[in-house]
């Protein structure tokens, strides 16, 4: 009980995620490449934050570092004020690839993390079905992955991450390989899930439109080296209308900023 109280107190007094002066360099055959340079950001509790930027700006690298899957050369990453040195149960991740086990049905794929944690079969199936219902797949609990569309497989991946009940959900271009129509449907479904669970979400995307549709805050990154160039607060009520002038205006501003980075102009 004391440990739970400490976690709750830490969550109340610190941002969920703090990135301070983080830099990352990769060694290549042609020499060192500075993937990230002196990145600073915070993500507050229950916020939906999107990171946008061109290829090579370090978006996915930064997300993997927050997840504890990669280290940084300089700086530090904190989870609720404590240094983040490796993966932890409170931080879940959804990748662009579905990464489902082809020999397991949907409900068993969804509850696999609970099985690794030692939960009984009946209990983990109950939890898995609850989150499958949340993403609209309760009728497909016994289906095999090859029987599902790409969008449905990604919903299973999201349900699997949620079933582990993380406090923070990291999403690395989860809809990037999905057709445009299905992508819009999944964006709506993800917002439904987020409004019910109020998990903190840090979401990487190439799509400015997707970021404006989903996020409370948008972080824009530039390249050479990867760095944060601006932040935008999205003060629009949900559900957002893509044909609204304020929506289009924000998309245009962010696209213009990204174009400046691509041409090497100063912002």
Automatic annotation (TrEMBL):
GO terms for molecular function: ATP binding; ATP hydrolysis activity. This is ABC transporter domain-containing protein. Residues 17-248 form the ABC transporter domain. PANTHER family: ALIPHATIC SULFONATES IMPORT ATP-BINDING PROTEIN SSUB, TAURINE IMPORT ATP-BINDING PROTEIN-RELATED. Keywords: ATP-binding, Nucleotide-binding, Transport. InterPro entries: AAA+_ATPase, ABC_transporter-like_ATP-bd, ABC_transporter-like_CS, ABC_transporter_ATP-bind, P-loop_NTPase. Pfam families: ABC_tran.
